[in-house]
Amino acid sequence: MRAELLLLVLLVPASLPGVLTGYCARSYGRSFWLWFALGALAPGVALFGLMALLARKELHPGAQLVAEAQRILAATEAEQQALVHLAQTLLRQAETAAATRCQPVERTASVPAHMRR
Fold it and tell me: What are the residue ranges spanned by the domains of the chain?
């Protein structure tokens, strides 16, 4: 019991650098498990290397422009899809309205059979 508790007390703090580097890497689109392993084996080196990679990405003006263009494109595509859906809905409603106006209404259909002459 004491050995298991001691092992748990030692493993939890030892895995924190791996979890930290893995989480940071995953939030930027990199592999969690690779950076978890690197952070568990060499925490200082892995954290420094990850921060260097992320800083290079964030400080590169071309990468920032590409990311902004991708956000604008995604928003424009979503807006275009919404407009296409709205246009299709309005077209269906107009076709339904036109079809119901052109069909003659049979008024005897709602009168019960025993009341018809």
Answer: 1-59, 61-101
